[in-house]
Design brief:
154 residues; alpha+beta
């Protein structure tokens, strides 16, 4: 699997974002998340312009872009430093079941030292046992705690 970085400093940044946007929309639709294109594009611009907050890649398979992965950086004392959160991992439906998701996660595991990461975290939907099984087969463990979030109403 080939991960193509989406960085504002890339000469082909605009083209890469245009490839990414329909996949992001499909990911958000799949999980019934709130998706507003202009807002999402602004978030991608902010994310792709600041390597300190994370990394964004298109997933290339052959000559096609078949998905994307977003890795957010967090610092946590519990895990000993900088941790990467695989925030979004999306593979186009026609390319699922070919092992690409596992290949992407293994590649991120391999890149941990160069990214300065001491751990990788991810989340999956409770009703997605296939993904959970994949991640467990790659060494991920379910942590004995709940993930809670506070999102102020605007």
């Amino acid at each position: 699997v080939n991960l193509v970085p989406v960085r504002k400093s890339n000469a082909d940044y605009g083209e890469l974002v245009e490839q990414l946007m329909p996949m992001a929309a499909a990911f958000y639709t799949l999980f019934e998340y709130d998706y507003r294109e202009a807002h999402h594009r602004a978030m991608i611009d902010a994310f792709a312009g600041d390597a300190a907050i994370g990394s964004l890649w298109l997933i290339a398979h052959g000559s096609a872009y078949v998905g994307y992965v977003a890795l957010s950086n967090v610092f946590t004392f519990e895990f000993g430093g900088r941790v990467g959160l695989i925030d979004e991992l999306f593979i186009l439906p026609s390319f699922r079941g070919q092992g690409l998701g596992g290949d992407v996660v293994r590649e991120l595991q391999h890149r941990m030292p160069s990214l300065g990461l001491c751990a990788l975290h991810l989340q999956t939907e409770h009703d997605n046992p296939r993904a959970q099984s994949l991640y467990e087969s790659l060494g991920f463990k379910t942590l004995p705690r709940a993930t809670l979030a506070f999102v102020p109403v605007v």
